[in-house]
Amino acid sequence: MTDLLVTARLLVTMDAAHRTIEDGALAIDKGAIVALGPRAEIEARYPNPARRIGGEKFVLMPGFVDGHSHAGHGLVRTLGGDDFPVWRQACRDIYMLGATPEFWAAEARLSAIERLKAGVTTAIAYLGGGDENNRSDGVDVPTAYTAAYGEAGGRLILGIGPTRPPYPKTYARYLNGAREEFQVDFETQHETCRRLLRDLPSSRIGVALTTPTVNPEIHRGPHFAELCDVARRMKRLAKDHDAVLMMDGQRGGTVEFAVRELGIVDTRTLLSHALDITPAEVRLVAETGATVANNPLSGSAVWGRCPVPEILEAGGRVIMCSDGLAPDCGADMFRVMRMGGQYHRAMARDPHLLPPGRLLHMTTSDPAAFFGLADRGTLEIGKRADFILVDMDKPHLAPATMPLFQLHYGATGQDVDTVVVDGEVVMEGRKLSRVDEAAIVAAAKREAQAMLDRTGLRALTATPESFWEDRYDRAAYLGPHQAPIAAAVKA
Length: 491
Known about the structure:
Urease, subunit C, domain 1, 18 strands, 23% strand, eight-stranded parallel β-sheet, 2 domains, alpha/beta, single chain
């Protein structure tokens, strides 16, 4: 007997040979794939499984791996409207000073179920909005966050790292409703990361390290040497634990500086956004074996272009990522793939760039391999069973005469019917098996309201006039590096 037998009209393995199996099936035992092939053959070999799921209306494929996002964002969506600087400052105020244990738990549970319901079986999330507001002040918040996230059954790799100098940084904690502010230096943050690397990982929880991006043009000043030392120390810690080191917001020569001056870029380094990096930096990405996280749904995609086709052509690796659940992103990786393809084709005026199959690899097998999850990310015998069933009997997908193309160009996260993680069915018929979805949503609503009252940020929920009419001063909003764009638009 086997634990689980799954059938589907099309099985998309995402293996190196791009193998697909029509009217296929796979068998799972103790969380691992033990057989896959034509349905009749697999059913004959395993006639009495403990459980059977799937059916002829489904496409079966690996679960998505979202390689760059942010914890906390689920409860701060769209605050401030489209005013990104205001939203980012709100994140600092909330994550550093205004977030209670109840806030973090509610956001963890909400983001976990949102991702699962969109087919994301593994997410990588900074604990906070980046190096300006990481919760690396101690192990309590990250430990509680990952515990709450894991309740729904998804996998999370938590990104943890220091804030940007100068130190110390002011944080606040809440005990029995009382707020207490305290100061945290770099050594405390470094020790937090070391303890989490040692104590936190489990079968569905991992740890990656983060470090502030160093821009020599912007950051050179009294704390520049300290910033560079922080980056080097975090890389040493990552190497000691064979952990990924992530650096958010690459642009303006930061890749070249990280490679040539800091020496912290290698095959275990993730460079996010990588906007307007130079041809020389494209070559450095390929030569060092680093991976770039492209976030086509992110607001940053309008500030500059990540040269994804060029990086791939040079032999580098790029993974498609959501950038989180806020301010205007979300967990739907079908949407991420489609937007990524359309964005880069439009930029290059080339409709043949980034074919759908390439984008599928960039959201499944490629990020899995990079984050050390080589035992999943594809459907092959011996690998762990992380996969999703997509319902193709929907008006916008029917008739599924070309299911691979229709999956890419038409499917959304809402079409994911079933999610399996490590062989466990954590969602079937869009009903989560471990947790109460309605209770999680209700708790998230309560905690968001309490946070707005606690931080005095409720005014940021008002609909600005700019929703109806463009009233932004582009030069002031975008900053000096966008001045030529602002001038061109005004002209």
